[in-house]
From TrEMBL:
Organism of provenance: Saprolegnia diclina (strain VS20)
Residues annotated as domain Cdc23: 8-264
Keyword Cell division assigned: yes
Gene3D superfamilies: Tetratricopeptide repeat domain
Keywords for the protein's UniProt record, in alphabetical order: Cell cycle, Cell division, Mitosis, Repeat, TPR repeat, Ubl conjugation pathway
InterPro entries: APC8 (IPR007192), TPR-like_helical_dom_sf (IPR011990), TPR_rpt (IPR019734)
GO biological process, one term: anaphase-promoting complex-dependent catabolic process
GO cellular component, one term: anaphase-promoting complex
One Pfam short name: ANAPC8
Name by which UniProt lists this protein: Cdc23 domain-containing protein
PROSITE patterns: TPR
Placement of TPR repeats on the sequence: 325-358, 359-392, 393-426
Amino acid sequence: MDNGGLASALAAARDALSARGLKHAATFACELYAGLPSVLHERVHASPPAREAIRSTDGVLELARSYFDVSEYARAAHILEAKRGALSSVEFFLLQYARYLAGERRKEAMSTEMKVVAETTKLTAPSPPKPVNPYLRQLQEDLSTADENGQLDAFGLYLYAIVVKQIAGLAPGATSDHVQRLLWRSLQWFPWNWSAWLELAQAVQLDTASPFDVNELSATCPWMVDLFQVHVLLEQNHGSQALEVLLPLRKQFPTCQYLLAQTAAAQYHLQDFDQAHESFLALTKADPYRVDQMDLYSNVLYVKEDKSGLSSLAQHLQHVDKYRPETCCVIGNYYSLKGQHERAILYFTRALTLDPQCLSAWTLIGHEYIELRNTAAAIEVYRRAIDINAKDYRAWYGLGQAYEILELIHYSVYYYQKAAAIRPYDARMWCALGGCYEKLPTPQPGHAKMCYQRAIGNKDAECIAVYRLGRLFQKENNTEKAAEFYQLYWRDRGLTVVDSPEAASAVLFLAQYFKEKRLYTTATEWCNRLLDRQGPERDEAKAMLQTMRNLEFTPFS
């Protein structure tokens, strides 16, 4: 398919998705279409692509769609049901989808009522079963019959997959061959439905055996396959691979804001916070009322300790839409950076009230509980995060921290191992795991060294691993190796003054090491670096300098 064909296909997909009320997928198609070079838009306008018949002669479809657009789903379903014997494929889908959404609304209403009753009566009895969509069974029966009769199109198969998934009670991330098969068939017929791709992403992981190969669709729709792969790679924190796939996509869709947002997310996952900051700045300039992924932007500002930037972002999003989970997470991050952890927890909890599946909110609440040393609460919320997404390294890492605070080091080792397996290129995971190997009742310095070497190989920006390797060799009286790593620590951090207890310890060791080697000039240089620091290290450095003077050594000047 050439660029002109791509533009025409996206224009047709946009109309087909909009006609069926698939708003999120239609919006995504519109974003892709708008991201194409303007010359392609002109070609589509000059030669409109052929479109399916999405109008009815009796006006029933238009009336049902108008009810659907104002969220009167039960009315939309009712008016279509009265015409059930002569429904077009669009009408059949809209009927079933309206019934599904009407049931989802009833489920939410029942859930709210149960919460109110529980809070007002202070129930101590076991929690009642979760409300379910009352129309699921009937939907399954109707869609199954239509599928057996060969009457389901790509959109009907997508809805059928959603219904089957809910009935099976599958948690996000769980797999079901039946669901995968339905989604696969749907995408083979109509690959432009981004909502179907997102559902498939929850069931299929790139590193997990699957009966289907999404690359089989590359011949007919390579762009959607690439977009799907970027999404899954970012879900699995493979930022560098995601950027490789994004590069040609951004050339194909040069002004697509979604792709810019994904680029910023990949840079964030790679801890390239300066580049991520630049990308998010460009995104907010081009799309100032965007809320999606602004919680990631707030994480970048948090790491950079940019209080004014985080404050501005929080205030802006509160004016745009204060009832979005992302907005609540941004505000929570702002209060966390200010050290107001209880208030931060309040906003993260609001995010979960709006979206109980908001993974960022669960992990951020856990971090706040860690700051407050409320390890029991932290463990609980981290476990909830893992229930939502078992590949969230932040939750595994948080559990490791919590059990380390409780001095249950064997548990910490297990959870840090999980985090390192998910994110093996992150030096922080290896430093944490190595530290726990040192703290075990029977320390395992060999394993600790291997972890620190892995950290060094993965850009240990803070040089924690280099220092700890020096300390381990010092404990083993391997002074040559200890001196080597302590000098690397000083060099790699680019230090000119002693700015931490670790630096003081390393410098004092190096002064003693070179003194014992009778390299008094070098030893004096290291001693002099400790003279401006308060503490016992300065006293030891002074004593060492005096000893060298008594040996009639003239200090280096």
